[in-house]
User: What shape does this take?
Amino acid sequence: MIFRVSAIARARAASALASRRYASSQVTTTGGEKSSALNSFAQAWYNVFGSSTARYATFLAVGVIGAELLTNATTDALWELNNRGKTYKQVDWSKFDPPDEDEDDDDDDDDDDDDE
Assistant: This one.
């Protein structure tokens, strides 16, 4: 069966396809100043890091290492805060020192040596 399409219908279909083709590349901003600031930041970031694979890979590696250092410092600080006075480096070890011997005992030992 052959469909006959009028010239008007073909023109409408062609204009709909043309508008779809160009609509995806158009950018509309509805956020005002916020959107333009974000857009400017994104463009600057892309120009510095995103335009080169090597720079992007370096950005990722440095970012991962930096995030790991920040996470490590944060968890250590929280651990120290929650276990204050209970960890090895925070214990007052002077409390566990043996008491000093009296000087009288030392004198007695010296006297015993003299008797011999």
In short: DSSP finds four helices and no strands in the chain. The CA atoms of residues 58 and 64 lie 10 Å apart.
